[in-house]
Each structure stands twice: as C-alpha cells, then as structure tokens.
Amino acid sequence: MSIAFGNIFFICYFQAVRRANRIDANQNDIVEALREAGAFVRIVSQGDGLPDLLVGYRGETLLMEVKDGDKPPSKRSLTDAEADFFTNWTGGRLAVVKSPVEAVAMLNQTHGD
C-alpha cells in the first residue's frame, strides 16, 4: 500500500514539475534574435512567476516573459504567479514579448536606439 502511494506521489510530482518547465514554442527564436542583436540572454524559466528570460543589453537589465503570439489571447495571458510578479517587481525593465521582432524592439526602446 505504501509503495502504491509512493508511486502516485511520484507521478503527480513529475507531472507538476514537467508542466512548470514547459516553454513557449517561440522562445528559442526569441532567444536567438536577442543574441544576434548583441544581448546576453539566460533562460531562467522556473515557474513561481519569475519571467522566462534574463537579458543584458548595453548596460541595461531586462526581464522578459515569453508568450506565444500564435496562440489565442486566452492562452497567452499571465498566470496568477506571473501577474503577481509583474505587480510587485520594483527592479529594472519588465516586459511580455510575443515574437522575436517584439523582443528586439524592446531592446531598442530600453537603450533608446
């Protein structure tokens, strides 16, 4: 009985972790575009509302939450944890980006190019 319970716990835990680490289909394209534009990018997706990307560009730091622009608006809204992070963040620039073009434009807005 305890073995069955342990297996159920493991399956539930594994599924929860797997869901938290899912990335949007366009994230790799966005990261590639940012790097080609000269940005330093770290993927920091870990759930708990923390944005997906930590971006350094010409002395500025940005946090970017990636959403898939090909999905309907209801599927790309912020989670409760993400919305809480956006509401309470008091640091540098924070943005939601839905495409490589939008992400690179955010770099240019931040630096004033």
Q: Can you walk me through this structure?
A:
The structure is a single chain. Helix content is 44%, strand content 19%. The chain is α+β, with helices and mostly antiparallel strands. A four-stranded mixed sheet has the order 1-2-3-4, covered by helices on one side. A hairpin with a 2-residue loop joins strand 2 and strand 3.
Determine the mean pLDDT.
Answer: 82
- Give the H and E element order: HHEEEHEH
Could you say what the CATH topology is called?
Answer: Trna Endonuclease, Chain: A, domain 1
What structural class do the secondary elements suggest? alpha+beta
Set out the fold topology.
Blueprint: H1 2-20, H2 27-36, E1 40-43, E2 53-57, E3 60-66, H3 80-88, E4 93-97, H4 100-111
Helix pairs in contact: 2-4
